[in-house]
Write a structure and sequence with these properties.
Helices cover 56% and strands 0% of the residues. With 136 residues, it is mostly helical. It is elongated, with a radius of gyration of 29 Å.
Length: 136
């Protein structure tokens, strides 16, 4: 027998793995909802743009630029701090609702921030009044 018809000793009788089982698209989907979400970025991007705009509009409406300019920092930073986890969550369909919830909460906080500051101010005043810490 000529050598050209023989198989090498290392592959003779060994099972051959099928090349079609390996996918180049990414990791295998293990559970429903773990597939990638092609529009994962929409909710965080919308909140990143809309939350500061809402903060600015509410600050103008409540006249915070002249009354409490130092407190405006929180009105811009706190809503964006709620958006950051939306950018960092897993980009799967299962996490879509969490990203939408964080974006909605950030926009609601941007709108409610002037009322939140006013409510905290009234609460501090009442507590100081009731504890006798306000002197004339």
């Amino acid at each position: 027998m000529p050598n050209s018809t023989r198989q090498p000793a290392s592959t003779a009788g060994a099972p051959v793995a099928a090349a079609s089982t390996v996918t180049a698209a990414g990791p295998a989907v293990t559970a429903p909802g773990d597939e990638t979400d092609p529009r994962w970025w929409m909710a965080p991007l919308a909140a990143t743009v809309v939350a500061p705009l809402l903060s600015f509009l509410m600050a103008v409406w409540a006249d915070l630029f002249t009354a409490l300019p130092v407190f405006l920092i929180g009105g811009f930073v706190l809503p964006l701090a709620l958006v950051v986890p939306g950018w960092c969550l897993a980009r799967t369909r299962r996490r879509r609702q969490a990203r939408i919830d964080l974006a909605t909460l950030a926009c609601c906080l941007a709108v409610a921030y002037p009322a939140l500051i006013g409510g905290i101010g009234v609460a501090v005043f009442v507590v100081m009044l009731l504890t006798g810490n306000i002197h004339s």
